Amino acid sequence: MKKAAILGGTFSPPHLGHLLIANEVLYALDLDEVRFMPNHIPPHKVQPLGVSDKDRVRMLELSIEGNSCFSIEGVELEREGPSYTYDTVRILQEMEPDTEFYFIIGADMIEYLPKWHRIDELMNLIQFVGVKRPQYKEETDYPIIMVESPQLLLSSSLIRQRIEDGITIKYLVDDKVRRYIEENKLYGSR
């Protein structure tokens, strides 16, 4: 049976912390692949600074280029309406019954798990993998596999703010992503 982990997020933009987490989980759990799954932005939220799904996917493609163990999972972008992890996991399991799925979350999400849609049923469908994140606790009553990873205090919102402020993002995102952001004037880049 194939073993694949899903790393969901807005990836606006994808940064080196995302790649580090994916790589650490891939090797710690001896997985076949890690799929980056860009989330649909809920209808009540405005897309961050006008960045399209197409731009987010392209930046992910540039980030994972050359790593055969990384791919993009587009199932949430193809669906209409709100994207609940429970529904997404059910769809993935129906599409690929011979794949054992894991779902990677940061410690910030571990604290929030009790509020997830249908969390108790979801826990019966998929194995959650938690990754430590600075300033967050990873204590939970839910069965989560914790993976050690070098910790970076890095977020997409920090990167967007640096771009808006005209501060370099070199070494925070893949160079191809940095060039893509600059060439396409994303996030208010100059």
Please describe what this structure looks like.
The termini are far apart. This protein has helices spanning 16-28, 53-64, 75-78, 85-95, 107-110, 119-125, 156-164, 175-183; strands at residues 2-9, 33-38, 70-72, 99-106, 127-131, 144-147. The protein has 190 residues and is of the alpha/beta class. It has a six-stranded parallel sheet with strand order 3-2-1-4-5-6, with helices on both faces.
- CATH H level, superfamily name: HUPs
The side-by-side strand order for the widest beta sheet comes to 3-2-1-4-5-6
What is the subunit organization of this protein? single chain
* CATH topology category name: Rossmann fold
How many helices? The count is 8
Identify the notable features of this structure and list them briefly.
alpha/beta; Rossmann fold; 8 helices; 18% strand; globular
Question: How do you describe this structure in short?
Answer:
The protein is α/β, with parallel strands linked by helices and 190 residues long. The protein is 36% helix and 18% strand. The chain has a single domain (2-151), classed as Rossmann fold (3-Layer(aba) Sandwich), CATH 3.40.50.620.
